[in-house]
Automatic annotation (TrEMBL):
UniProt organism field: Candidatus Avacidaminococcus intestinavium
UniProt keyword list: Methyltransferase, S-adenosyl-L-methionine, Transferase
Protein name: Release factor glutamine methyltransferase
EC assignment: 2.1.1.297
DNA-binding is among the record's keywords: no
CDD domains: AdoMet_MTases (cd02440)
Flavoprotein recorded as keyword: no
Entries under HAMAP family matching the protein: RF_methyltr_PrmC
Domain Release factor glutamine methyltransferase N-terminal: 15-84
Entry-linked InterPro entries: DNA_methylase_N6_adenine_CS, HemK-like, N5-glutamine_MTase, PrmC_N, RF_methyltr_PrmC, SAM-dependent_MTases_sf, Small_mtfrase_dom
The protein's enzyme class: transferase
Binding site for S-adenosyl-L-methionine: G129, T130, G131, S132, G133, D152, N197
């Protein structure tokens, strides 16, 4: 009689269990969740469907596509790069390895800026180191009468940001400029506020970052030996590009609040507000002149 051969039927539940274990062995941080997200990308379905149809077998084509994604994730490629997109506030941004992946804590910087600007009729702002454009484009979505100039040293990043501006319908009020900080701006440019989430990791600490973060562009992370290079450069020139009584708004790294706030004070910004992130870490600095409209508005978010 013929021999019987056991054929493994890879159902949704079975492949998820297998992948969870595989990712865990490879040190992937959220093994089960990531397995589910990747499988949803292949099956083009919401996560709930995995649970509703957990006994559904996968076709050989589906298995092949899924396996390719699993290999990438096991190699610590961030999920956002594998999917090519990342949610930020209510918006979905295209991301590639040319841009930093937008972080949830950066949403706070945008939300606070919306509060600070909501009573202003005419807002123009400069976003330095725009990357994917998450900050400037979200701000334009939430402050529909504002206009933005977004600079980046990376031409590749600007291509991604521009695509996001188009996809999210704000290209008419968003201008990308390939520039090292202020260099390519017209010397007469004046903005209501300047916002930046510059590279702020100390150069020597880049190698200590999680594997996933190491896959992000180092030029978006490396803030020089003390991590403060970009704050020093931006703050020293900011006054020139700000309207009288303009505002400076930064994301900062852990333990940088005092140093950055001192730089702002030395540059003549007398009203400083420091805000924390979800983890209680000082994450944003806002700086304006005491008694100015922004200075007064800052008192409302303290
Ligand atoms: N928030 C990023 C991180 O901790 C750093 C981003 C930056 O340098 N601006 O990995």
């Amino acid at each position: 009689m013929g021999t019987t051969q056991e054929i493994t039927v890879w159902t949704i539940v079975k492949i998820l269990d297998w992948t969870r274990q595989y990712f865990a062995d490879k040190g992937v941080e959220n093994p089960r969740l990531d397995a589910e997200i990747l499988l949803c990308a292949v099956l083009n379905c919401p996560r709930i469907d995995l649970y509703v149809h957990f006994d559904r077998p996968l076709s050989p084509e589906e298995l092949k596509s899924y396996k390719a994604l699993v290999v990438r994730r096991a190699n610590h490629e961030p999920i956002a790069y594998i999917l090519g997109e990342k949610a930020f506030l209510d918006f979905t941004f295209k991301v590639t390895p040319a841009v930093l992946i937008p972080r949830p804590e950066t949403e706070l910087l945008v939300e606070r800026l919306v509060l600070l600007n909501k009573k202003r009729p005419k807002v123009s702002f400069l976003d330095i180191g725009t990357g994917s454009g998450a900050i400037s484009i979200s701000l334009l979505k939430l402050l529909p009468t504002a206009v933005a100039v977004a600079v980046d040293l990376s031409q590749e990043a600007l291509v991604v940001a521009e695509e996001n501006a188009i996809n999210l319908g704000v290209k008419a009020s968003w201008q990308g400029v390939h520039s090292n900080l202020f260099q390519q701006l017209a010397p007469t440019s004046k903005f209501s506020f300047i916002v930046s989430n510059p590279p702020y990791i100390k150069h020597n600490e880049i190698a200590l970052l999680a594997n996933d973060v190491q896959k992000e562009p180092h030029m978006a992370l490396d803030g020089g030996s003390g991590g403060l290079d970009f704050y020093e450069k931006i703050i020293s020139e900011a006054q020139h590009y700000l309207e009288e009584d303009g505002l400076l708004a930064f994301e900062i790294g852990i333990y940088q609040a005092e140093a950055v706030s001192d730089l702002c004070k030395q540059a003549g910004f007398s009203k400083i507000v420091i805000c924390k992130d979800y983890a209680g870490i000082e994450r944003n600095i806002f700086a304006a002149k005491e008694g100015s409209d922004y200075g007064n508005a800052l008192m409302e978010i303290e």
